[in-house]
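Sharing a chain and its predicted structure for anyone who wants a worked example. Both blocks are below, sequence first, tokens second.
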Amino acid sequence: MAAAAQTPRSGRQLTLAGHGYEAVIASVGATLRTLTFDGRDLIVPFAADEVRPGYRGATLAPWPNRVVDGKYSFGGDEHQLALTEPARGHALHGLLAWTEFADRVVEDDRVVLVAVIEPQLGYPFRIEVAVEFHLDSHGLNQTVTARNIGADAAPWGTGPHPYLVAGAGRVDDWMLTLQASEVLTVTPDRLSPVAVEAIDQHPEWDFREPRRIGDVFIDHAFTEISRAEGVAEVRVVAADGRGVALSWDERCPWVQVHTADLPADAPNSRIGLAVEPMTCPPDAFNSTVDLIVLDPGAETAASWRFRAI
């Protein structure tokens, strides 16, 4: 009991350092708690002994974003998930955000954390989830690997939830590059998906050419992303030319971007830009768009990389 009481609220702390970078991984939710380069923040951090603010830095699985009403059909059965976004009535960001992950590998430049999603109401499947963080001269790479260790096929999706920090100021002050030609529109009240539309119809969200974010509100998923040799990248840059980039390959055809507006909490509003590569769009358990179906014994992985600019 005493040892548990001494563990920080965000879990055990695992530090990777080198090449100018330092990352601290918290074991609860396999969370990227801090990431710096030459001492400057690349993501919005939080304290080790703090209950993680929302999903800041958490690993999202077995779905990213929302399942509308928490309801979906799979394999001929109807399922009802717990509504973990009560204000909007959805199941939000999967089942592992508050789970304690165990160590599988702990090295100076690499850690692998593992947890098992046990069969439960709304998700009666058993999935082993391994989350690897690896630091090298190109930045911090995160890989999420899922393996179906149950007897039935299971729906699957994943993604991270970092809030990128370009430098001084707030989201409004930074330049964003997001080379996506389509956006998933949502309802204004519950953010439920409506339709994929051309970005040309929504110039307020068109950042194919770098421009200042300003006061625009974004909480949308984007797709049809331009790639260089298969790699997509979102860049956020401050006035001094420094910033941060997050890149990923074709295993994530979607990216959620959110300006982190908190009208009731002005000091913490728009202090970072959420950039979340995703293997599937919001509510993929219902739409089945890019939904991964994991057969028993099957394995799938997705990766993304943070680097300083």
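Comments welcome. The longest helix spans residues 2-6.
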